[in-house]
Amino acid sequence: xxxxxxxxxxxxxxxxxxxxxxxxxxxxxxxxxxxxxxxxxxxxxxxxxxxxxxxxxxxxxxxxxxxxxxxxxxxxxxxxxxxxxxxxxxxxxxxxxxxxxxxxxxxxxxxxxxxxxxxxxxxxxxxxxxxxxxxxxxxxxxxxxxxxxxxxxxxxxxxxxxxxxxxxxxxxxxxxxxxxxxxxxxxxxxx
Length: 191
Known about the structure:
By secondary structure, the chain is mainly alpha-helical. It is 60% helix and 4% strand. The protein has a two-stranded antiparallel ribbon.
């Protein structure tokens, strides 16, 4: 059990919501670059609603209002423009990727709102908090990997490439989040 698991669930969810809210701005830009104005509008509305009504994004009112999240990054934008993925590779610390997605990381970093924070100590604190949040979600995924895979490298590679391929083929609508608690009473989406 990690220190992160000791924190109450609303605190963990609030931290996750805060960083997801910041990424909605960059998703809006990428949706525009992909020629998806409806998705860009949804991302803008999500950011506006969650920033104003959701205490800077800690509360996710946009989901409760039915505004869909369209997560996009520059790697997906390049894929939409027809750039090939290139070979699969594993980056130290960052994990699985492709050559296209690795090249896109430079642009994605410039689009990250945390990098534009002027107060260095606050910016570094946000980096650490985001790293802890990401690490906590990856620990849960690592437990599943340990139980399901005989060859962890092959399993991770195949899962990563299949997920990224499915997201690009469906114009970004197939991406699902498995790190948030399921809502009760809501039927599962059908395919």
